Amino acid sequence: MSHDPADDTYRILDANGVRTWLARLPHVRSRLGGSADDWGVREVGDGNLNLVFLVDGAEGSVCVKQALPYVRAAGPSWPMTPARAHFENAYYRTVAPYVGRRIPEVYHYEPTHYSIVMENLAPHTLLRYGLIAGNRYERVGRDLGEYIARVAFFTSDLAAPFERKFDDIARFAANKALVRISVDLIFTDPYRESPRNRHTTPQLDPWVAALRRNAQVKAAAARLGQKFLGDTQALIHGDLHSGSIMVTAEDTRVIDPEFAFYGPVGFDLGAFVGNLLLSWCAQPGHAAQGDDRAGLRKWILDQIGAFWSAFQHEFLRLWRNEAHGDAWPAALFPGPDDATALQSAQKAYLDSLFTDMLGFAACKMIRRIVGFAHVADLERISNAHLRASCERSALAIAVELLTRTATFHTIEDVLETLPRIAQLAAGGEI
Amino acid sequence: MSHDPADDTYRILDANGVRTWLARLPHVRSRLGGSADDWGVREVGDGNLNLVFLVDGAEGSVCVKQALPYVRAAGPSWPMTPARAHFENAYYRTVAPYVGRRIPEVYHYEPTHYSIVMENLAPHTLLRYGLIAGNRYERVGRDLGEYIARVAFFTSDLAAPFERKFDDIARFAANKALVRISVDLIFTDPYRESPRNRHTTPQLDPWVAALRRNAQVKAAAARLGQKFLGDTQALIHGDLHSGSIMVTAEDTRVIDPEFAFYGPVGFDLGAFVGNLLLSWCAQPGHAAQGDDRAGLRKWILDQIGAFWSAFQHEFLRLWRNEAHGDAWPAALFPGPDDATALQSAQKAYLDSLFTDMLGFAACKMIRRIVGFAHVADLERISNAHLRASCERSALAIAVELLTRTATFHTIEDVLETLPRIAQLAAGGEI
């Protein structure tokens, strides 16, 4: 599974390499059409870990994603097994039966050079950049809520006998290199001094110092970090931020599942919510004459509400109709008393996912402000004072979510409380 | 991993087969001494799944355990992969560095016929039979508490980087056949009609019917069943009842870990507590003239207290001194505020194990009274009315533990409350 540098079958692809390789795959060749020499090949990757090529032929186009043997953002000095492409492919194949066209179609996986040939999503844009540009995508909250509900339910013990899950747990437990990144960059480094960390300095210095002294915050993050490693609830995407979602007005797609493993569902829920909250906090940094972003901010909060509502609705619908697993076997609950007990259990289960979602959302926000990898929502605010103000909002929201989790009973509680916290923090008042 | 019946390397061993095989293993041969023809070989297995041979030579003895390709108690009509011997061997090798002589020394594992050659524990007896005979073993509670604490801590994310745990999770996730037995026989069948179930009839009929109608009980069991499959806290033995513990007055050993996988620590804690409670409930059935078992019953409850106290003490000691893992990284908690937060977290963690322990103990008790596999503590009470009275006590205790878990804050709460519940139930008053 690991990349052996001496293995001469691995080659970093370039445009010609892509062309030569795809020309040898009949089903890809016919999809592209025309002569391979005429195919347009562009490298467009801007992520941390991979090369991404868009290939245009006479009749169609495909996307090629190759995992590099190092972290692209850091260069060859930070080696990283390209075997993560294997887990990306495995995730797509595992969830495909449940999510239909919410993921790109995979045409081919090439294990020798860790490359996936898949549907070219056009004219889709990354949700993150769409929100920075001030756009709205009316389906995205609902689509993502349903998506996570379906993956979480169908890969859990509620849906099928545990044997299938245990096989998949074993398979994805090998994705250690990427889980290691999450453990270090999300649950550890942000809460201590580390050469990999950075933040807007000097503006945030006292805030970051206070964060790293806040024992309640660190304990909450540590508890979630422990849960991240010990809760095999379902197959999770593992990196479901707004840069892993491609959108148009009519369509929503989930991409880049290379961090996938069996973990807590709240981690995926929290990734989406945390990144929408980051976008919400960053919007004042992107306002312009005649574009104050106030309406967009309201819309973002509404999307968080729509997201959680859609998740709950779909998850419960599946639990009522598709519970063929070993957990909560339907055969044990045939009577009216049983139905009441089962409904209580379902509510308790969703409450626990809700709590996890808020906590993981907070962890995701914090690591993007004081850790290694930041987000364009904030990085593109060139005025450091303005950026720091947005970042203070985000940190204040995250601290509130982590340390006062129990005060939030519904998503409405969250959406009403957080703007007040953020406003005080943005002005430096708390 | 699975047994292929066409694989002609697998042979069910007999005395001669054992002799011939061991004579070819130099280190075993020299341990036994003398001529192989003179070795005494006796089959002594009385478990559900295996053959067990004791081999006596001129200079020493060994024990040979072979996994059969079917459930021994049911015969060849219930096939069962003998690959479980592989997991038994893997468990012993994994925990050996942490538990010293609390497990038998393993001399050899033979994968072709799924047989382990190990230390012959003599003059040890199974704790279950020792308690039926009315004996006390002053170390057993403390030894088991420390044993579970050490295995639970050192195989968890508290002790070491998660990569080692993920590798082991993958390895033990293949032990599906035995986890399936637990899922069916502990968490499912007891709570519904099943041809595999039996109970003392007609005496317990109304009690069993009430149990299977009790939605709160079923919901509590289902919640624990879900946790059993989704919580990779640590490597657990998976079947740690009083028939998996061998004792003398001076020594305690844990055997038969073939159900091992990564699961909730409370499952092992609960197995021990549940089986001591079963013994406590059964003692009136073994009383005789001049041997009313009252002192022994008091001693059994004291052992439960000593067990939980030793577990807590050892687990916390290790957490304070050996925390080199990814969960709760010590480096994040350097200051005095941090120490307070960490202590709260440790208390919360132990509280949660305590709650799990009570719930799993209850599940273990119930399945032994209304499910497939019963225990000698109760089965050996030949008077059905007396046996039913003991079983009613046990069921009442289990229902109390499952449905009123939150009312028990300390082990003393448990040990004070349960005898009253049991006494009322034994007389049929509740």
Please render the helix and strand layout as text:
Two copies of one chain form a homodimer.
Chain A: H1 15-23, H2 26-32, E1 40-43, E2 50-56, E3 61-67, H3 84-99, E4 106-110, E5 115-119, E6 125-126, H4 127-132, H5 140-154, H6 162-172, H7 176-188, H8 205-213, H9 215-230, E7 234-236, E8 245-247, E9 252-254, E10 261-263, H10 265-282, H11 294-321, H12 336-370, H13 376-379, H14 384-403, H15 411-426
Antiparallel strand pairs in A: 1-2, 2-3, 3-5, 4-5, 6-8, 7-10, 8-9
Helix pairs in contact in A: 5-10, 5-11, 7-9, 10-11, 10-12, 10-14, 12-14, 14-15
Please, could you describe this protein's structure?
The structure is a homodimer of 430-residue chains. With 430 residues, chain A is of the alpha+beta class. Chain A folds into 2 domains: 15-119, Phosphorylase Kinase, domain 1 (2-Layer Sandwich), CATH 3.30.200.20; 125-426, Aminoglycoside phosphotransferase (APH), C-terminal lobe (Aminoglycoside 3'-phosphotransferase, Chain: A, domain 2, Alpha-Beta Complex), CATH 3.90.1200. Helix content of chain A is 52%, strand content 10%. Chain A is built from 15 helices and 10 strands. Chain A has helices at residues 15-23, 26-32, 84-99, 127-132, 140-154, 162-172, 176-188, 205-213, 215-230, 265-282, 294-321, 336-370, 376-379, 384-403, 411-426; strands at 40-43, 50-56, 61-67, 106-110, 115-119, 125-126, 234-236, 245-247, 252-254, 261-263. In chain A, the strands form 3 sheets. A 5-stranded antiparallel beta sheet of chain A has the order 1-2-3-5-4, sandwiched between helices. In chain A, a hairpin with a 6-residue loop joins strand 1 (40-43) and strand 2 (50-56). In chain A, helix 5 (140-154) packs antiparallel against helix 10 (265-282), helix 10 (265-282) packs antiparallel against helix 11 (294-321) and helix 10 runs antiparallel to helix 14. Chain A is globular and about 60 Å long. Chain A starts with 14 loop residues before the first helix and ends with a helix. The relative contact order of chain A is 0.12. At the A-B interface, helix 6, helix 7, helix 9 and helix 12 of A face helix 6, helix 7, helix 9 and helix 12 of B.
